[in-house]
Design a protein that fits this description.
Blueprint (H helix, E strand, L loop, with lengths): L1 E7 L6 H11 L3 E6 L3 E3 L2 E4 L10 E4 L3 H4 L3 H7 L3 E4 L6 H9 L3 E4 L2 H6 L4
Parallel strand pairs: 1-2, 1-5, 2-4, 5-6, 6-7
Antiparallel strand pairs: 3-4
C-alpha cells in the first residue's frame, strides 16, 4: 500500500520518524514530505509536494496551522484515507476531506501498525 507521511522527520525521537520505520517494516511503499530534505530507511524526504498516483493513506504529523499549505495538495492526491495523529487534529480539513469521500481517522499510526489495524 502507498503511504505518505506528511510532516516527516529525520529526528529519531519524532513519531513521524518512527512511523516511517514501522511502515517500511510492514512492507508499505512509503513517501515522505517534511520541512527538510533527507532520508530515513531509504525513504527520501521531500520538501516539495509531488504527485503520487494511487496513494492509499496519508498520515499527518503536522499541527493544524502547519497543514494550511497542504490543503489543496491533499485534495489533489485523492487518498482513500487520511490519519490525523495525536496533535494533528484539524476539524476544518477533516470536514473537507469527508466531503470529498475520503475516510478520515483521528488515530495513532504507530498503534494501528503495531496492533494490525492499519
Amino acid at each position: 500500500m502507498k503511504v505518505l507521511v506528511l510532516g516527516a522527520s529525520m529526528n529519531p525521537q519524532r513519531y513521524a520518524y518512527l512511523a516511517i520505520n514501522d511502515l517500511v517494516d510492514n512492507g508499505h511503499e512509503v513517501f515522505a514530505l517534511g520541512r527538510r530534505e533527507g532520508e530515513v530507511r531509504s525513504v527520501q524526504i521531500s520538501k516539495s509536494p509531488t504527485v503520487i498516483e494511487d496513494i492509499h493513506t496519508v498520515t499527518v504529523y503536522l499541527g493544524a496551522k502547519n497543514q494550511l499549505e497542504y490543503y489543496e495538495y491533499l485534495q489533489q492526491l485523492k487518498p482513500k484515507r487520511v490519519i490525523f495523529n495525536p496533535g494533528a487534529e484539524n476539524f476544518q480539513l477533516e470536514k473537507e476531506l469527508r466531503e470529498a469521500d475520503v475516510e478520515v481517522l483521528s488515530a495513532c499510526t504507530l498503534v494501528m501498525l503495531r496492533t494490525n489495524q492499519f
